[in-house]
Write a structure and sequence with these properties.
Blueprint lengths: L5 H22 L1 E3 L4 E2 L3 E3 H13 L3 E6 L20 E6 H9 L1 H18 L2 H5 L6 E9 L3 E9 H23 L4 H21 L5 E6 L2 H20 L2 H4 L10
Parallel strand pairs: 2-4, 4-5, 5-6
Antiparallel strand pairs: 1-3, 6-7, 7-8
Helix pairs in contact: 2-3, 3-4, 6-7, 6-8
């Protein structure tokens, strides 16, 4: 029977200790700066991959979400609104796994890339209503899918209603006043005063977030929300009291 020497025991102990120390170093996580929700932390390997992911999809704005903030992430997405870029909410746990699991990484990068292509068609589909949307985005969910959201400035819908209403009134008034230049100038001054009053009434924080499980559903909800905002403006005060409230969250 072979005897284990003290030197071999010491060597095995040192090797085990070094391996444990190396594993501890590789899994050590630190806080991530930049656009975040909560206080997400990533390992060095995950941080490196996350930077590569953002570079790969450089025309998108990534927001890293801590695992305890996933449920409320969409509620805060409006803070990062960018009308020209799509927001992507992704949590720290997925980034960690994507950094080490190739199949998992391919699966979720395909989700991000596919959503990017779909959402890029939104403005064309929405037409004039696109001007009422502050930003579009997606949240990478568990289970290999994504949900979509849009942050809508309801004051933009009211602004459009004012513009449409004033345009109609102006057209009718001009038809009646073709022969009265003086009256036409007076109407013009009145219109300018009304526009200035409208600017003072707009509320830049008057926003709502709508969510959907597909781009088609998101388009429908955006159009419906903006239409409701416009109809609320053109109805009389008494008429606006009638009806209920639709909740688009979920």
């Amino acid at each position: 029977m072979n005897q284990v020497t003290q030197a071999e025991v010491t060597a095995n102990y040192m090797q085990t200790s070094n391996t444990q120390a190396s594993d501890k170093t590789n899994t050590k996580k630190t806080k991530v700066g930049g656009a975040v929700i909560g206080t997400p932390e990533l390992s060095d390997k995950a941080k490196k991959y996350y930077e590569q992911l953002k570079k790969k999809y450089s025309n998108m704005d990534f927001i890293l979400v801590s695992k305890d903030k996933k449920a409320e992430a969409q509620a805060n997405a409006g803070r990062y609104a960018n009308a020209n870029r799509m927001v992507v909410l992704i949590d720290e746990e997925k980034i960690e796994r994507m950094a080490v699991d190739e199949e998992y990484r391919k699966k979720y990068e395909a989700i991000i890339g596919g959503a990017k292509n779909q959402l890029s068609q939104l403005k064309d589909s929405l037409g004039a209503n696109a001007s009422g949307v502050k930003t579009y985005g997606m949240q990478v969910n568990d289970g290999g899918n994504a949900s979509f959201f849009a942050v809508i400035d309801k004051s933009m819908a009211a602004q459009r209603a004012r513009i449409d209403k004033k345009a109609a009134e102006r057209k009718a008034q001009e038809k009646e006043d073709r022969k009265a230049a003086a009256q036409k100038r007076a109407e013009k001054r009145k219109s300018e005063k009304e526009k200035e009053a409208d600017r003072m009434d707009w509320d830049e924080e008057d926003v709502v977030t709508v969510t959907a499980s597909s781009v088609e559903e998101l388009i429908q909800k955006i159009n419906q929300t903006i239409s409701m905002g416009m109809s609320d403006y053109v109805r009389t005060e008494q008429e606006s009291w009638v009806g209920g409230h639709l909740d688009f969250y979920g």
